[in-house]
Amino acid sequence: MIALLLYRTVVDHILPWAVTFATRMLARGLNMPEPLVHTTGDYVVARVTAFEHSVGRSLGVFRLAHLLRAWWRELH
Q1: Is the pLDDT of residue 2 over 80?
Q2: Please, are residues 24 and 34 in contact by the beta-carbon 8 Å criterion?
Q3: Terminus-to-terminus CA distance in the chain, angstroms?
Q4: How many whole angstroms separate alpha carbon 38 and alpha carbon 19?
Q5: 27 near 34, Cβ under 8 Å?
Q6: How far is CA 12 from the centre of its chain?
Q7: Confidence (pTM)
């Protein structure tokens, strides 16, 4: 019961504050307005998602896993 209360407190109060704080610090570090940071983040997420879907379709899950395993073996 106490763990649930603690979890809800973190999720409801601390997490949104931390996300806002991180966004503000990133915007200040990049010398950009906050709305532009949000828009750029949305754009990057959309591009990464599109890339992952295109790679996933062209390679397939099993082929990609096989290539990753072969690459990992070459490193060790």
Answers
A1: no
A2: yes
A3: 46
A4: 11
A5: yes
A6: 20
A7: 0.53
